[in-house]
Structure formats: C-alpha cells, structure tokens
Amino acid sequence: MDDEMIIDLYWERSESAISETSKKYGSYCRSIAYNILADYLDVEECENDTYVAAWNTIPPTRPKILKSFLGRLMRNIALDRYDYNKAQKRNNEFDILLSELGDCIAGQDTESKYESGYVAKSISDFLRSIDTQSRLVFIRRYWYSDSINDISVGFGMSVSKTKSLLIT
Predict the structure, then answer these.
(1) How far apart are CA 152 and CA 167, in angstroms?
(2) Is 168 in contact with 134 (CB distance < 8 Å)?
(3) N or C: which end of the chain has fewer CB within 10 A?
(4) Does a cis peptide bond (omega within 30 degrees of 0) precede residue 59?
C-alpha cells in the first residue's frame, strides 16, 4: 500500500492504518529505536507509542513523507525512553555516540547550544559542505545510530575508512 493510501486510512480513522503502517515501516522504526536503546522490550513499547502518536497526530497533520515522519516520531520517543532508562541501565554504544557529538561542540554546554538552535544550524551547514558519501555516513551514524561496523558493511568500505570519514 502506498503512503497516501495509509495516510488516508488515518484520516478516515480506520484501525487498519496502524497495521498497514506496521507492515510497511515497522522494521524501519524498530531499527531506529534499537540503535538507541539496545533492548527489544523497550523497542516494542516505543513502536507501539509511535503508532499511537501517529494516530493522534494524523489528522490534523498530513505528513509529506510518511517514512520520515514516523522515523522522527520513533526517534524522539526512543530518546525519551533512553533518558528514562539512563538512571537504571546504560547503553554503551549510544553513550559513545553522544560523547562523539559532544566532543565536536566546544564552548558552552550542548544543551544550551541545542536550545538556541546553534547545533542544528551548524550540522546543516556542515552537511552541505561535505560530499554525498560522507554526508550519508554521518547521517547513518548520528541520526540512525548505526554502529561503525554496520555502516562499513552497508557502504562496502573498511572500518578505518568509515572512522576517518566521521573524524574529518
């Protein structure tokens, strides 16, 4: 089923919207959450919360790109769950990822910069200045939270080349 038809199901308040969304984008959403949380039970809860959020948001919102819309919902929900879980358990891979980003931003604390929009503008400017492959590697690492090994395999390059693309 194409995205417009799925969105129409949400607008009609048809419960099949959820099942069609799950069929088409379930694994995509789960991979985003798993890369952040590394816990299948948390991922399952986040997936369900994402479908509820989509149900509550469509309508009145009519997403232009359903996949990106769902990915953003899932990522935000997974990040909220990560914050909640952080006091009780740790996901070392995601902690490393956050520290990599924190090391890139000098000066005032990361939260203040994020709130002021500085980080978003800096990342956008940076992504516009690099080649396509480097941009895709960056997005896979820092948006989708893919491991360096997964990125290397996905792009058919060595781990050291992947690391060097992320360092530059």
Answers:
(1) 14
(2) yes
(3) C
(4) yes
